[in-house]
Predict the structure.
Amino acid sequence: MSDVRARTLITVQDLAESLKAQTPLVLLDVQDEKATARARPLIPHAIATFLDADFSGAPSKHAGKRPLPETADLQAKAQSFGINPDSLVVVYDDKGGAQASRAWWTLRWAGCDNVRILDGGLQAWLEAGHAISQDPAPAPGGGTITLSPGHLRTIEADEAAALAHEGVLLDTRGKAAYVGAPQEPGKPATGHIPGALSAPATDALADDGRFKSGEELRACFAALGANDAQQIGVYCGSGNAAAHSIAALSAAGLEAALYIGSWSAWSADPARPAAIGEEPGGA
């Protein structure tokens, strides 16, 4: 694995070897909403975490469905998970990586540098024949990490609108959400930010559910005009799939800013236009 890829991802083999060797690490199993969480097998020693309860602030029309948490709240959560300044943190999910990527991004944004996404997630772990657990590990507490905001770039709605024309703005939702449909009275707008390019997050994955190679990822993003010479912004519905694409960009050696509010905030503002159709500027 290349150095640039290894700063973002960890393989199942490397995680299994680390656990066997009892290498100190914090392993986080990530689901979206605590209230709707479902029982599922976990990797041994994994702590159960949730995007809404552990990695997000309170949703609102202005901030969107998954706004950033207060740093003090996130720090308290990280310390409860036992994260120290020198901890290796590994995050995973069973949904293609979007939920784990949002946890990865949020921790990195807050200055927790040594965070890795398990490439292929729970499915890759199961396919490799490794042991599982039916119960999450208890959060041990006692972590000493200190967090601060702003270590990864974010953009607001006006910046996203400008970037769609002055740089590269990627919409990482599925194609149907990007194309949208004429707005119905009383319902949120569908479609995309005018000028944004359709770049579904799932395009970064190979058939086995793992991230494509760095070369393949760079080629995919280059075809969209996303390269070292361009300012790149990313959004989705609520910031999860966008974080997954930022992880893919990172594994390819590229940096991008996340529009935290994403479409959930953009579409809630009646002053914000929605482009309909397959073309970036609308049909």
The mean pLDDT is 95.
